[in-house]
Amino acid sequence: MPCWSRRDLLAAGVGVPTAAAAGELPKRKLGRSGIEVTALGYGCENGDEGMVRRAAELGITYFVDVPMLMPDPPRVERPNGFPWLGAALRGRRNRVIISCGTRANTRDAVFATLDRQLRESSLDHFDLWYMLAKQKPEEITPELLEAFSEAKRQGKIRAIGVSTHGFPAMAPLLMRQQTIDVVMVSFNFVAGPPVVDLVKAVAEAGLGIVAMKPMGGGLAYAMQVNPQGYAPLKRPGAFAAALRWVLKHPFVATAPVRTGKLSELEENRRAVTRVFSEADEKLLAG
Fold it and tell me: Which of 5, 35, 153, 200 fits 30 for a cystine, CB–CB 3.0-4.6 Å?
């Protein structure tokens, strides 16, 4: 993956406008955390230092770098952009929101992972740190909640999040607790009214909503999991319409999109400056 610097972009004839020049990105609050983020976020997993820097130049303020699992047993977490994440955002640290997380389940493992991630990214804290891939309420143990709360008291994290693909099962717990501030949940145009209503209810309970897979996770993934539902994504302009569909819901704080392509990053930036339209709705119709 090439590392695009500002000098590289200019040499290639790519303009680097400020956010004001391109139109300000809308900003929203991450629930009761009070943290303000741009409606468009950037998922760092497929990027590099230059892509992260370019996203910041485009006015994006929310960055998430979720550690992936190694493909072979014992399936341990591997770092993604940690070594360069802090460097890419140096000079902007007070203006951006950086989030990461862990699948660790014990206090010792939580702090070992957190300290390593901070050290490798040259950061002194994360703004938001997720309990990753929690599918059942019983996976949010008292030990895990206390470990994250302790990290928050120590100033190593500002807000506590959870990511889940088991949202219907997790929603009742999320709505009645006060420790978790943010939930990252799969949310896009194939979601039916019951899912939309449930996400809204969780937001109304005070949690910030981060929309995972706002464009279905990409065409290849979408065709694997739901070829009929995601078929409209094959149409020109559908990905931009899908992103606008997510952000038409005011209870969604931000929708981070993963991409390693400069053209896609800038297309996403342009897409969110327009409102969801009747033409978008027709484009996404099955």
Answer: 35
In a domain, 200, yes or no: yes
Q: Which residue has the higher pLDDT, 220 or 188?
A: 188
Range list of β-strands (E), 33-134 = 36-38, 40-43, 62-64, 68-69, 77-78, 97-102, 126-131
- Environment class of residue 256 by beta-carbon count within 10 Å: exposed (0-12), middle (13-18) or buried (19+)? buried
Contact 41, 255 (CB under 8 A): yes
Q: How many residues does the chain have?
A: 286
Range of the domain at 218: 37-284
Q: What is the total count of domains within the chain?
A: 1
- For residue 131, report the phi and psi dihedrals to the nearest 5 degrees: -80, 110
Distance, in Å, from the CA atom of 67 to the CA atom of 104, rounded to the nearest integer, reads 11
Q: Is residue 31 part of a domain?
A: no
C-alpha–C-alpha distance, residues 114 and 28, integer Å: 27
The radius of gyration computed from the CA coordinates of the chain, to the nearest angstrom, equals 18
Per-residue pLDDT reduced to its tens digit, 233-277:
999 999 999 999 999 999 999 999 999 899 999 999 999 999 999
Q: What's the pTM value of the predicted model, to 2 decimals?
A: 0.88
